[in-house]
Amino acid sequence: MSAQIPANLSEETVREISDARDEPEWLLEARLEALSALDDLELPNVIQTPGRRWTNLEALDFETLVDPLNQSDETTREAPEDVVVLPFTEALDEYGDLIEEHFGSVLDLETNYLTALSAALFTTGTFIYVPEGVNAEDVKIRAEMNSRSLFSHTLVVTEESSSVTILEGIESGEETGEERYFSNLVEVAAGENSYVQYGSLQNLAEDSYTYSLKRGITANHSTINWIEGNLGSRLTRSDIETELNGEGSETKIVGAFFGHGDQHLDVNARVWHNAENTMADLITRGVLDDEARSVYEGVQNVGRDAWRTNSYQRENTLMLSDESEADASPKLIIHNHDTEASHAASVGQVDKEDLFYMVSRSIPELQARNMLVEGFFVPVLDEIEVDEFRDDLEELIAARLS
Questions:
Q1: Distance between first and last Cα of the chain
Q2: Can you say how many angstroms the Cα of residue 124 is from the centroid of all Cα atoms in its chain?
Q3: I need a labelling partner for 157 at 20 to 30 A (CA). Which of 16, 197, 337, 367 fits?
Q4: Is residue 41 within 8 Å of residue 110, measured between CB atoms?
Q5: pLDDT of residue 6
Q6: Quick one: how far is CA 241 from the chain centroid?
Q7: How remote is the C-alpha of 221 from its chain's centroid?
Q8: DSSP string, 186-232
Q9: In angstroms, rounded to a whole number, what is the distance separating the alpha carbons of residues 196 and 250?
Q10: 80 lies in which domain range?
Q11: Does residue 223 lie in a domain region?
């Protein structure tokens, strides 16, 4: 089912956004093509069982949520001198040819209604370029959303034998008194023998609705690792995807979420093994309290020519209340016999025997429960190599528990 196109969205609107940013003709054409595709595009696929749709994206009122000409954000960017980290508007002047080559090459802008909507309307975002042989650490992007709607697009390009670690955070700024919508598209084009680690932490206010699609494509012997934490937003739809097109390339997708109140989290991780000797590791852990709900889908797709691959997936959800609910759908799609692959998913509550043992040792019940929850997240936290990201996530989890 497709969504209704907001009445305040037209070709004139898109041209006004592009003109205000003094964009080249090719980018305006890309925006207009995405706009024209909206009539025929569907909303992102959601898992369904007979008589039940696990996530109801059709309930989003884009007529109210989308205000394309009044987008506002406060974004800071920090980076070493030898790596290019610029807002799109500034990067187009100096790196226009490189951006034109890669924009929309990793992620099909017309994947679904929400990607096309974002491509047509984005006003913020970052271009990150790591030249050959450069090792860049601590690229930081901190964004604050100060409007009813905000559309962002980030493009990362790494050359041969380079590396970069990127930390991205998004939170709410000024109160608007209205429900809000945030969209975030990320493309990563990893050059041969390069390494990219992209960490993202979403902690928007719970009057927000969030959609993100982060996608990477590897070259020979390159690595793309994703780290994602979702704690904010009333409804979160998060998709992380890696296409392993290079021989000997690797990816790791590490996810953590913590829902409470009536939050709904739809979290998805997908990997395509298209080349030989590729490796993927998908790790997700989440906690739900009150009436929160989570939906998880993990897909490992091993192609016919992807010989000698390794692909592993595990997702665990811990429920702290009887009213919370979790669904998981891990999938293996194997097209050849020379691969090692496995998947596992579990949903359960705090172990009563563990809780009883701790309480019997004079630990207050709430403190004991919180200690068990913090311990539950340890396998995910241990996978996070960046200290700052791990510390931020631990602090947010502790704050949620208290």
A1: 40
A2: 16
A3: 16
A4: yes
A5: 75
A6: 9
A7: 23
A8: EEEEEPTT-EEEEEEEEE--TTEEEEEEEEEE--TT-EEEEEEEE--
A9: 10
A10: 11-350
A11: yes
The sign one gets for the Cα dihedral 329, 236, 201, 151 is positive
**Predicted confidence (pLDDT) per residue in 11-66, tens digit:** 999 999 999 999 999 999 999 999 999 999 999 998 877 667 789 898 888 888 99
| Residues whose CB falls within 8 Å of the CB of residue 122, separated by 6 or more in sequence, listed in order | 88, 151, 152, 153, 183, 185
Instruction: Give 260's contacts (C-beta < 8 A, 6+ positions apart).
Output: 288, 289, 290, 292, 400
d(CA 19, CA 275): 42
Residues 174, 72: Cα–Cα separation, whole Å: 10
Residue 184 in domain = yes
- Kindly report, residue by residue over 268-289, the tens digit of the pLDDT: 999 999 999 999 999 999 999 9
124 occurs within a structural domain = yes
- Residue 2 is predicted with a pLDDT of 60
CA distance 190 to 206: 34
Is 265 within 8 Å of 236 (Cβ atoms)?
A: yes
To the nearest 10 degrees (0 to 180), the angle between helices 352-360 and 365-376 is 130
Sequence-separated (6 or more) residues with CB below 8 Å from residue 342: 311, 312, 313, 332
pLDDT at residue 4 greater than cutoff 70: no
Give CA–CA dist 53/58, Å, rounded.
10
**Pairwise CA distance, residues 153 & 234, whole Å:** 22
Residue 116 corresponds to which tokens in the numbers above? 């096309």
What's the total number of domains in the chain?
1
DSSP state of 135: E
Distance CA 398, CA 402 (A): 6
Q: Is the pLDDT of residue 175 over 80?
A: no
116 assigned to some structural domain: yes
* Per-residue DSSP letter, 390: H
